[in-house]
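INTERNAL AUDIT FORM
Audit reference: QA-55
Scope: verify that the stored structure record matches its stored sequence.
Auditor: D.O.
Record contents follow.
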Amino acid sequence: MRRLIVALALALALAVVLAACAQTPVAQRLQLPPLQLSPASFGTSVSLAQRLTVLQLPTGAALERPTAEHSIDAQLEIDPDAVRLAAFALNQRVLMLAWDGRALQAQRHLLLPAEVDATRVLRDVQLVYWPLAAVAAALPGGWAVDDAGPQRRLSFEGRTQVQIDYAGTPRWQGRAALDNRLEGYRLTIQSSVLGGP
């Protein structure tokens, strides 16, 4: 019985936390472009311990009205050969992905909702951390990205779809907050360098 309760709790936690990052309403026509940039285009190597907090937002609603908040832990490694991410919930690994610039490999917990898409996870990581020029070069027509101080905006035809606010320098240290207005969630990432001070 205890095992069943733990399994159900895990399924619920995963569904709420990670599906927020993956949901796109059926009626939605505009979709964020996938970013599958080469690991080498990141320009350096980094290994991070992260705390990811997701706020679900009603799509199209004001950012001040979140409907749910959940957190998971992750480890992110980026080097010229690969991007690797492992996510943990309830002390269990629930998602592992590796991107070498050619193929995206993912391992998922059996209870991880099918809606959680490793391609979107990779997209968000690269949108938050990759150099502006690398992101801009990968965007299709109508899309633009710009940096203004501690902020990055991804826009379609002049309208902001994603806004990222940074509190640390370099941008992968400290806090980064991604507001995905198009898909209806806010992702806050608190990062520290593994092996750092």
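Auditor finding: record pair retrieved intact. The mean pLDDT is 83.
Action required: none
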